[in-house]
Amino acid sequence: MNKAGVPDEVPVLVAGGGPVGLATAVELAHHGVRSLVVEPRETVSWLRPRAKTTSARTMELLRRWGLAETLRARAPLAVSWSDQAVFVNSLLGREIARIGGCFGLDLAGSDLAAEPGQQAPQPLVEEILREAAGDALLTGWQVAGLTEDGDGVTVRIVSGEGEEREVRAAYVVGCDGPRSVTRAAIGARYEGRQDARPNFNIVFRAPGLAERVPHGPAVHYWVLNPAQPGLTGRLDLKDTWWCIAQGVRAEDADPVRLVRNLAGDDDLEVEILATDPWTARMLLADRYASARVFLAGDAAHQNPPYGGHGFNTGIGDAVNIGWKLAAVLNGWAPAALLGTYEAERRPIAADTIEAAAANMATLAPELADPALMGDEAEFEKVRPAVAEAVLRTKHSEFHSLDLVLGYVYTGSPIVADGAGERLPHRWLAPGVSLYDRLGRGFAVLGDPDAPGVKILEAEARDLGVPLELVPLPGEPLTLVRPDQHVAWRGENPEGALRHALAMS
Questions:
Q1: What are the tens digits of pLDDT across the range 113-125?
Q2: What's the DSSP call for residue 289?
Q3: Which residue intervals define the domain FAD-binding in the entry (predicted)?
């Protein structure tokens, strides 16, 4: 440790301390590996919540780290509060249609998942992950450059006051966002496009507004007003709200007027807390890694927010590269295992970008109809057709468990034929998930008396691989990786563990 309080060496340096970088550090610590997360922001900004949906899969991973209940206890909106998306002509006006069971918020107690989704502003997720990362987080510094060689990576970091230090790391994970220094350092570049339509985010306070909304609780209210389309929702059960005004350029924005238009009240009392103009991007890095530097989260991919997949995809990246780095650094896997990260995660990001872009193809402006703003007779005449269009075009945006829970590492060089999917979940007893029994390394599930169990246990001992036995009498053998994905299933597991660790 040098005089600036910056370590001279660290096994893994993580560039960027947003949710993905922090999740990488937490995953590494889960496996006993030290890291250093370099993040320029001293504190989390609560005024620009960005992501608000923590998916069921991310919640399962938070459960794995012992953090799911912490997030639920501190989330302003309980998971039981609402799972509805309501489509209206204004927030205080008439209802057109509604979609229930959104974002996996209705999965409590279901065998489909160990955890339902959770509505929580991104700053809260970051705050909890910061607490979990502990001393691994170095704020007030940012990665300014890096040089890779055969034995490691020399990383140049700079403080907010201009002080420079070098840190030597065995590996670097770049979670430093769209303008990633690490992406540039490995010669990777984005491929894709940017949407032409502008958007304008607003966080605002509106005392008494919630009590006037006639549509009941909802996670999203979509306003199908042709004069001002957009969507809005509550950040807490007090008076704080968020909204997205679609088709609005920053230079033309009057935030108070936009909020009043979406609410349908020209005299609404509004206090603007923050604004954030943005455009949607569909971008994917052409490569995810060099030998010792890996990209994750927005440094590797960006997608439109529709469907709530953004940072959740990045958390999946963090867990995938995290357990593999830990396996290598802990001495029970070869460096070749790290070469499978891109092969597994890049196709998932490509599928996510495609799904989010499809969701974006039909937004509030496309669904709006001038007749919705007319008198009751005009509204009722057009409402059935608009409602049908809403249900037809937006169902997949709010019901995407096939993507969230069902993605498969098809074609991965370290999964056996017919494997690669997330282990199907079940409850073993009230409150006891199958996932709770898997341990932190690999796990073998099935009949404990099957001959294959002894084969896997002997192979694990020889390789020094942590392996947990989960007895399920009468069931076929299944080898599960540390990230809860199936590596192999069958009767004869000879060499299955070696294959799952890129040893064959």
A1: 999 999 999 999 9
A2: B
A3: 9-355
CB proximity list for 75: less than 8 A, separation 6 or greater = 118, 119, 120, 124
Kindly state the tokens that stand for 158. Answer: 């700079």
| 129/307 Cα distance (integer angstroms) | 23
CATH fold, domain 9-79+117-191+282-359, is FAD/NAD(P)-binding domain (3.50.50)
> Both tokens of residue 336?
């070749």
How far is Cα 115 from Cα 109, in angstroms, rounded to an integer?
8
Cβ atoms of 497 and 479 closer than 8 Å = yes
How many degrees, rounded to 5, is the angle at CA 192 between CA 15 and CA 58?
Answer: 50
- What was the pLDDT predicted at 4? 59
**pLDDT, tens digit, for every residue of 49-104?**
889 999 999 999 999 999 999 999 999 999 999 999 999 999 999 999 999 999 99
For residues 14 and 269, what is the distance between their CA atoms, to the nearest angstrom?
Answer: 44
CATH number of this structure's domain 427-500: 3.40.30.120
- The two three-digit tokens of residue 464, written as one number: 């020094």
* pLDDT at residue 5 in the model: 77
Amino acid, res. 198: P
- pLDDT number for residue 48: 81
Continuous segment of H or E residues that includes residue 456: helix 451-463
Instruction: Give the tens place of pLDDT for each residue, 41-61.
Output: 999 988 888 899 999 999 999
Helix H, strand E, coil C: the string for 23-86 is: HHHHHHHHCCCCEEEEECCCCCCCCCCCCCEECHHHHHHHHHCCCHHHHHHHCCCCCCCCCCEE
Torsions phi, psi for 405 (to 5 deg)? -110, -20
Q: For residues 77 and 74, what is the distance between their CA atoms, to the nearest angstrom?
A: 9
Domain ranges of the chain: 9-79+117-191+282-359, 427-500
Q: Is 291 exposed, middle or buried (0-12, 13-18, 19+ CB in 10 A)?
A: middle
Nearest by Cα to 357 from 310, 406, 316: 310
Q: How many Å apart are CA 483 and CA 497, to the nearest integer?
A: 15
